[in-house]
Amino acid sequence: QVQLVESGGGLVQAGDSLRLSCAASGRTFSSYAMGWFRQAPGKKREFVASISWGGGNKAYADSVKGGFTISRDNAKKTLYLQMNSLKPEDTAVYYCAATEGVPSTAAMTMTYQYDYWGQGTQVTVSS
User: Fold this and answer.
1) Which of 125, 57, 52 is nearest to 94 (CA)?
2) % helix, strand, coil for the chain, step of 5
3) N or C: which end of the chain has fewer CB within 10 A?
């Protein structure tokens, strides 16, 4: 069991950077693989990035490669998403999610794979 709370969103200009945080509470945070998803108005929730429980395996959506970096600090029970060179198309509500076990890379891009979700944090990028 794990509880997730996102923070760090806000309104920024194109080209700016933000770092999102996902604070977790629970007894076995380090055993969870985790991911970031986002959902823009009128669109389906989409995969952004994922990271294994040990931090060694990472995956990114093609749309954010080169600009976003996922990381985790298990000692602090916190997941991060560093977002650089933000663009208006990055505007969305960003959600943190966690899953038990060790899913495949493909499975970690699917919303159904995740057992726990945060409430989301809004990121708005203006031109």
Assistant:
1) 125
2) 10, 50, 40
3) C
d(CA 101, CA 98): 10
Q: What's the rounded Cα separation, in Å, for the pair 61 and 64?
A: 6
CA distances from 10 to 3, 48, 86, 94, 98 (A): 22, 18, 12, 11, 23
d(CA 31, CA 42): 34
Token duo for residue 27: 């007894």
One pLDDT digit (tens) per residue for the chain, 127 residues: 789 999 999 999 999 999 999 999 986 667 789 999 999 999 999 999 999 988 889 999 999 998 999 999 988 999 999 999 999 999 999 999 999 876 788 899 999 999 999 999 999 999 9
Q: Which helix (H) or strand (E) holds 6?
A: strand 2-7
